[in-house]
Amino acid sequence: MVASNSRFQILALSGGGYRGLFTARILAEIEQQIGARIGTRFDLVTGTSIGGILALAVALEIPAQKMVELFEKHGEAIFRKRFSIRGIFRSQYSNQTLLQHLSSDEVFGQRVLGECLHPVIVPSINYTRGDPVVFKTPHHADFKTDHHHRIVDVAMATSAAPIFFPRYVFNNCQYVDGGLFANTPGLLGAHEAYQFFGVSRAEGDVRVLSVGTMSSKFTVNPKRNRAGGTFDWGGWWPVNAPKRIFGLSISAQEAMVNHMLKHQFPKGKYVRIDDVLTDERAQAVALDKADAAAREVLLGSAAEAAKDFVGSPAFKDFMEYRAASPVYHYGSRANIQKAAQC
């Protein structure tokens, strides 16, 4: 066991629609190797969109394998297209199947954010106000309200991808996918460590383990129309234009954040687990592809990526660490008075 008062570990899980099955499988493989829930190795968990759903599961110590099975079994139902006249009048997919499964007692049920066993932060966008928002457990004295929110509401709010799913409404506000501004939330996690956990920038030993979703790089075909209109971006199907722009946005974000975290946390303190989609595999995988071919690529690639990580020095470095017991100021797990007495 690594013992260091200055050390602080962050687990950051990217968004990517059904490609999050890749992330879930990697987490499951790691849990199998360490014989424990992965949340016990991290002082903070953060995730966006599907990564946000998984981060909330990690914070509750729901076995990662259970999340793998959920998305394996119900992925095609979650991404079953509905009649929408090319996506003009409503989103391509309903969010009711996802809501139903996440609301089950086997997953989040009616539990609230303050019941999480490990600190977690999850980004979304409050479209009613036009502002980014980050839902948080009550690990700081200023965080007085979020702990009342149902976990399933936070999960649905962070994963309401425009065009794909309808906006999610709760607490009299409309929310859309946090991937629009923080699809790879490692920087959010680092900011949280310094700003709200009191980790010293000069003396603290912050480490970030980031898990991706086999994100594709969106590039231009030089033979296409360059006028910048709907046909340029989406071809004959208008709904493809905003979907492609959304994909380009989250792909570019991942690349930028990856570089910034490498600069901020050098010498093995930032580790990224991901895989690159080849041209052939990319045809089978997308944010909303959940068929047998997509499952084969995602699960197979995840197994290989997990194997590489487990065999690396980084695995031992990250997984021998044990996170300190969290201090919560409010909610059913509030323990700040006990902590002050110790």
From TrEMBL:
<dbReference type="GO" id="GO:0016787">
    <property type="term" value="F:hydrolase activity"/>
</dbReference>
<dbReference type="Pfam" id="PF01734">
    <property type="entry name" value="Patatin"/>
</dbReference>
<feature type="domain" description="PNPLA">
    <location>
        <begin position="11"/>
        <end position="190"/>
    </location>
</feature>
<keyword id="KW-0442">Lipid degradation</keyword>
<dbReference type="InterPro" id="IPR002641">
    <property type="entry name" value="PNPLA_dom"/>
</dbReference>
<feature type="active site" description="Nucleophile">
    <location>
        <position position="49"/>
    </location>
</feature>
<feature type="short sequence motif" description="DGA/G">
    <location>
        <begin position="177"/>
        <end position="179"/>
    </location>
</feature>
<dbReference type="GO" id="GO:0016042">
    <property type="term" value="P:lipid catabolic process"/>
</dbReference>
<dbReference type="InterPro" id="IPR016035">
    <property type="entry name" value="Acyl_Trfase/lysoPLipase"/>
</dbReference>
<keyword id="KW-0378">Hydrolase</keyword>
<feature type="active site" description="Proton acceptor">
    <location>
        <position position="177"/>
    </location>
</feature>
<feature type="short sequence motif" description="GXGXXG">
    <location>
        <begin position="15"/>
        <end position="20"/>
    </location>
</feature>
<keyword id="KW-0443">Lipid metabolism</keyword>
<dbReference type="InterPro" id="IPR047156">
    <property type="entry name" value="Teg/CotR/CapV-like"/>
</dbReference>
<protein>
    <submittedName>
        <fullName>Patatin</fullName>
    </submittedName>
</protein>
<feature type="short sequence motif" description="GXSXG">
    <location>
        <begin position="47"/>
        <end position="51"/>
    </location>
</feature>
